[in-house]
Design a protein that fits this description.
CATH class of the largest domain: Alpha Beta
CATH architecture of the largest domain: 2-Layer Sandwich
Number of domains: 5
CATH topology of the largest domain: Heat Shock Protein 90
Structural class: alpha+beta
Number of strands: 26
Oligomer: single chain
Largest sheet: 6 strands, antiparallel
Radius of gyration: 51 Å
CATH superfamily of the largest domain: Histidine kinase-like ATPase, C-terminal domain
Strand order of the largest sheet: 9-8-13-12-11-10
Shape: elongated
Number of helices: 20
């Protein structure tokens, strides 16, 4: 209420105010101030379409625009201009700045006034009052200028209002300043048919009114209609309407009531109206919702207790790969708990490696990150070593995406367990199996030795027969006699005493030759059987010892030189220059020597054949000279050896990087595709890695081998089981 110069109070004009401000806190503060001044906030929004595209029913009388500083001033001023244009209402800017630039922008919209956001609310009230007066004058002037042909007739207005009043679903009651009902619509009459709603004095005879708790009576002076008659607006007041008698024709009703003062053109309060909505179902739904919430809370508590008591580690991340859960077992296993650091720091923070214990897992290959991408991972083995777990642990990880009801991926979950003990047991079993095979090898070698002795004896027998053979001497004498009597052969056989002995001599010689042949054939058969036995033993041994050759300390530079010697002649024929650099490598490494050297030979042959391919394609390039370089050095990762075999040959298309080590892959017409495959099998089986590097066809290539050095091995950490990734 406001005072005139004569001291009499009169009601302040009531207006519908649109509030626009980019700051939610400022919008709330302005809304509270406007409501406190007795006005209605018809809408509150940030600058933009939501502040302009309002329904006709929400049309404002005044727009209160929050003016920001700097670049944010532009959207607010633009929105204010569009509001003024659409609704033909005055603009009042609320600001805390006196900077010229935003005020100059606002001035172009012809504002009705300015107020300070932090100023006295009375200043805001005066600005709104003045703006409302301008609104009334504008609308009156517009009505005066409207032609009679387009202006609605009073009877039409009455008919429209009466139709709306009687047919809206909400109950509406209008009372004068004395509290007498002057209008009650059909919806209000449905509350009860046993009383006269136009007689408010008898209302309390039929109903009791309680506050939202359902127990505290509502004071008559606090009812929304009573407040509206006083000139105070109230919005969405929850109350319980309970019949006093069973014959009231209804049960308890929960109502939401909003009261609005009715004012004349001069702003004086003529009475009030209350709009009532039946929300009886709402408290029931609220109670049901609370029961469901309690049940869900209980289930969440149970699930949380289960997850926290699990022996397996459980981690959950949201769609942005931010941790939302990290159970105690997860922290115990990896040594470090949940972090808010981004995923690209997780590998270093937690120390996540592949099963070789050397190769770090890239960020995009971390199980929970892959799960957030929608992938499912099963029994992936990783190695964790960080400052908290210096010895490291092996873990087995399962991970899967978390999806919403619509199937959208909203996060990922990873479950893992410590399998270090199992890994040690597997390695111990592998070692025991290897020792057992060594015993088998000893037995096999013994059997081979016996077989070789037998073969040697048989070979000596055959050799002795060929070197000093009586039958051969007798054949020689026979040949001499035949040659000597070539001219008188018949007469010599018939008349000469020696000639007459020729027949028994031949018969005896044939008999002796037959016996000697049988003995030699038996010896040869025994030798053949023993040789076959040796071959069978070797084949059996090869199947047993594949991948289990014992490792030993070897001279690295010497081993590389020996591998180069194997292909030296071929390199010389092709004119390929080769360079070996081991200056930054250890002198000795623990390795399966023969397979390591064969791996080097395969890599050198591949490099040599790459230069052949380039030479065949670039025959007219006289400046090009084929070169191969072998560089051995310690790796950037602790206790690793890196060997680069580089060439300036044909190069590798990057799209083929994933195929070069596959069995059968080759770019040569007569190639088998087994050399690099065999080299990769040895490297990976030794717990290392091998990768191709090339800028593409015609730019040469490097095959990089990374192996773990002997110093890294610990008493309980043997080489990975053959075939494990």
């Amino acid at each position: 209420m406001h005072e005139t110069s004569t001291g009499r109070e009169f009601p302040a004009p009531h207006g519908r105010i649109l509030i626009v401000d980019a700051d939610p806190g400022a919008r709330n503060a302005l809304s509270d101030a406007v409501t406190g001044l007795g006005h209605t906030v018809c809408h509150a929004a940030e600058p933009g379409p939501s502040a302009i595209d309002l329904p006709t029913a929400a049309r404002p009388d005044v727009a209160l625009i929050g003016l920001a500083v700097g670049e944010k001033a532009g959207p607010a001023v633009e929105t204010g201009a569009r509001v003024a244009e659409r609704f033909a209402v005055p603009l009042v800017y609320a600001t805390d700045t006196t900077d010229a630039e935003p005020l100059d922008q606002a001035q172009r919209t012809d504002p009705h006034g300015y107020v300070l956001k932090s100023g006295d609310p009375r200043q805001l009230g005066l600005a709104i009052r003045a703006a409302l007066g301008a609104t009334v004058r504008k609308r009156a002037a517009r009505q005066e200028t409207d032609s009679d042909d387009v202006a609605p007739r009073p009877e039409w207005n009455s008919a429209i209002l009466r139709s709306l009043f009687d047919n809206i679903s909400d109950a509406v009651i209008v009372a004068d300043v004395r509290g007498r009902f002057v209008a009650v619509n059909a919806a209000a009459r449905r509350f009860s048919e046993t009383y006269d709603p136009s007689n408010p004095e008898r209302w309390s005879e039929h109903f009791e009114v309680y506050q939202a708790d359902g127990r505290t009576p509502f004071a008559a002076e606090d009812l929304p209609l009573t407040a509206a008659i006083r000139g105070d607006a109230t919005g969405d007041v929850l109350l319980l309407l309970r019949p006093r008698h069973a014959d009231a024709g209804t049960e308890d009703l929960w109502l939401s009531a909003s009261g609005y003062p009715l004012r004349d053109a001069g702003g004086r309060c003529m009475g009030g109206a209350v709009v009532i909505r039946d929300v009886t179902a709402a408290p029931e739904e609220s109670a049901r919702a609370k029961r469901i919430e309690a049940e869900l809370h209980e289930r969440v508590q149970i699930l949380d207790a289960i997850i926290r008591s699990m022996g397996d580690g459980v981690v959950v991340a949201d769609a942005q790969a931010r941790f939302t859960l990290f159970n105690p077992s997860a922290e115990r296993i990896v040594g470090i708990g949940m972090t808010d650091r981004p995923p690209d720091e997780w590998t270093d923070l937690y120390g996540v490696f592949y099963a070789d214990g050397v190769t770090p897992v890239p960020t995009d290959q971390l199980p929970v990150v892959r799960a957030v991408r929608g992938e499912t991972i099963e029994t992936l083995r990783l190695f964790i070593r960080n400052a908290r777990i210096s010895e490291g642990v092996y873990i087995s990880v399962n991970a899967s995406p978390v999806r919403s009801e619509s199937g959208e991926v909203v996060g990922g979950v990873a479950v893992f367990r410590d399998v270090t003990q199992r890994r040690m047991e597997e390695e111990a079993l592998t070692q025991a199996f290897a020792h057992g095979r060594l015993e088998v090898i000893d037995t096999v070698l013994h059997n081979i030795g016996n077989a070789i002795n037998s073969v040697a004896t048989g070979v000596d027998t055959l050799n002795g027969w060929f070197e000093d053979n009586e039958l051969m001497r007798r054949f020689g004498k026979l040949a001499d006699l035949v040659a000597a009597h070539d001219r008188d052969w018949i007469s010599w056989l018939e008349r000469d005493a020696q000639g007459r002995q020729m027949r028994p001599f031949l018969l005896a010689l044939v008999q002796d030759l037959t016996g000697e042949h049988a003995r030699l054939l038996g010896t040869a058969r025994r030798v053949r059987e023993r040789v076959r036995h040796i071959v069978d033993i070797i084949r059996t041994q090869a199947s047993f010892t594949a991948g289990t050759v014992e490792r030993k300390l070897v001279d690295l530079p010497a081993t590389i030189r020996d591998a180069v010697k194997v292909v030296r002649e071929s390199l010389g024929q092709r004119g390929v220059a080769i360079e070996v650099d081991c200056t930054r490598a250890p002198n000795q490494i623990l390795v399966q020597e023969s397979r390591f050297q064969q791996m080097l030979v395969n890599l050198l042959k591949n490099a040599m054949e790459a230069t052949d391919e380039r030479a065949a394609r670039l025959e007219d390039d006289s400046d090009w000279q084929p070169r191969i370089r072998v560089l051995a050095r310690r790796g950037e990762q602790k206790n690793t050896l890196v060997i680069d075999v580089s060439d300036n040959g044909i190069g590798i298309d990057p799209s083929h990087f994933g195929s070069v080590f596959n069995a059968g892959y080759t770019t040569k017409k007569d190639g088998t595709g087994l050399g690099l495959h065999s080299a990769a099998n040895f490297v990976i089986g030794s717990g290392g890695s091998i990768q191709p590097l090339s800028d593409g066809s015609g730019y040469g290539a490097t095959l990089r081998v990374t192996l773990r050095l002997a110093e890294e091995q610990r008493p309980l950490r043997s080489p990975p089981v053959h075939g494990e990734p």
